[in-house]
Design brief:
single chain; 97 residues; mainly beta; four-stranded parallel sheet; globular
Length: 97
């Protein structure tokens, strides 16, 4: 599949499929890496945080959020998440307490 638009700095393998990336949110895209044959559906949110690696043949369904909390996330090869999944990493800043 030809990817017509991707966020600047995001590393996507040429064999990966990203459907309608203009409908998704990619925060800190320079810290996001997508492996070969991975599939990212439209309407997802990926926060780069301290680093996000989406492995080969992984599938992220629509309305999912990856790396909420801004830590480091490794979404391994052959992994998948259903529609609307929230995967959190890191810890909230509690210094204001």
């Amino acid at each position: 599949m030809t990817i017509l638009w991707v966020p600047v700095g995001m590393r996507i393998d040429p064999l990966a499929e990203v459907f309608d990336p203009h409908l998704s949110v990619f925060l800190k895209p320079e810290r996001i890496r997508v492996g070969a044959h991975a599939r990212l559906d439209a309407l997802i949110r990926v926060e780069g945080g301290q680093g996000v690696t989406i492995g080969e043949y992984a599938h992220v369904s629509s309305f999912s959020s990856l790396n909420a909390g801004g830590g480091e996330l490794v979404f391994g090869a052959h992994s998948g998440c259903a529609c609307g999944v929230r995967i959190a990493s890191g810890m909230p800043d509690s210094s204001y307490l």
